[in-house]
Design goal:
The protein has 129 residues and is mainly alpha-helical. The chain has one domain. The protein contains 4 helices and 2 strands. Strands 1-2 form a two-stranded parallel sheet. Strand 1, helix 2 and strand 2 form a beta-alpha-beta unit. InterPro entries: RNaseH_sf (IPR036397), Tc1-like_DDE_dom (IPR038717), Transpos_IS630-like (IPR047655). This is IS630 family transposase.
């Protein structure tokens, strides 16, 4: 959110193994010593034994902020996915999962070519934009 740059990973599954590999990717992307804050939903892979074991190898590197379990919460990643769907995936036909993966990765490259930092605004009337 700070730089507008997106670090992505397109996987067939969302298990602890894939999540830990993504954390390792983030760790290698950002300079050592920076604390990486991640907003997460309450998926079991985010709190699994495997994830906790990895986090112990990089103490203080990551801070997880979990969305509420029971309630509607505007999630910036949902906004990003909606925008990606509208701009890059709507009304297309792909021949394979590999082609879909390539299209998503191409979109991420295009976003990162001209990153736009997200600016959260909260209005006095309670509106979020």
């Amino acid at each position: 959110m700070v730089t507008g740059k997106v670090v992505g990973s397109v996987e067939d599954r969302h298990r602890s193994k894939e999540f830990v590999n993504f954390l390792k990717k983030l760790d290698s992307t950002y300079e050592p010593g920076l604390r990486i804050q991640i907003i997460l939903d309450n998926h079991s892979s985010h709190t699994s034994k495997e994830t906790r074991a990895y986090l112990e190898t990089v103490p203080g590197r990551f801070e997880f902020i979990f969305t509420p379990k029971h309630g509607s919460w505007l999630n910036i990643i949902e906004v990003f996915f909606a925008k990606m769907t509208k701009q890059a995936l709507r009304h297309i036909r792909v021949q394979s999962k590999e082609e879909l993966k390539e299209r998503i990765e191409q979109y991420l490259q295009e976003v990162n070519a001209n990153p736009v930092p997200f600016r959260w605004k909260y209005g006095l009337d309670g509106s979020v934009s």
